Amino acid sequence: MQGNKLVIDALNMLLAAELTSIDQYFVHSQMYHNWGYHKLYVRIDHERGDEIGHATKLIERILFLNGIPNVAARTALRIGADVPAMLKNDLETEYEVAALLKKTIALAETEQDYVTRSILLQLLDDTEQDHAHWLEQQLGLIAAIGLPNYLQLQAAE
C-alpha cells in the first residue's frame, strides 16, 4: 500500500527517537549493572526491550506504507554520569518521544491514516503510562527518601 509521504517521514522521525531510546537504555542498563544496582538494571533493560518493540512496530508500518525505514538516524543521546542524571535524561527522552507521538498522531488523523493512528496511540499509552510514569516515581522516591536510601533499595536482588 502506498502511504502518505508526510506520515512516512513522521514515522521515520519517531523511529529515530525510539532507536536512540534503545541505545540510551542499553548504556544506562549496563552502567547500573556495573555499579551493582540490580533492580535498576533489570527495569531499564526491560524498558530497552519495550523500545525495541516500538521500533519494530514503526519499521513494520513504514514498510507496509512502502516507505524505507531510516535506521541510521538518531535524536540526541543523553548518557548520565550518575543515577539521578540517568533517570532525568531518560525521562526527558520519554517526554520528547511522547510529544513527537502526539504530533504524529494528529498528522495521521489529518491524513485519515487511522491504522497508523491506532498503532501510535498504543505506543503513546506505553510511553506515558509506563515509561515516563515509572521514571517520575523514581525521581519522586529520591526526593522523598534521599539518594543513599534509594540506591540501597536498588542494590537488592
UniProtKB/TrEMBL annotation:
Binding sites annotated in the UniProt record for Fe cation 3: 46, 50
One BP term from GO: intracellular iron ion homeostasis
Any GO CC annotation of this UniProt entry: cytosol
Reaction it catalyzes: Fe(2+)(in) = Fe(2+)(out)
UniProt keyword terms in alphabetical order: Heme, Ion transport, Iron, Iron storage, Iron transport, Metal-binding, Oxidoreductase, Transport
UniProt keyword Iron present: yes
Residues bound to Fe cation 2: 51, 94, 128, 131
Residues that, per the record, bind Fe cation 1: 18, 51, 54, 128
A Pfam family matched in the record: Ferritin
Listed GO MF terms: ferric iron binding; ferroxidase activity; heme binding
Annotated Ferritin-like diiron domain residues: 1-146
Family: Belongs to the bacterioferritin family.
Role according to the record: Iron-storage protein.
Alphabetized NCBIfam families for the sequence: bfr (TIGR00754)
Protein name: Bacterioferritin
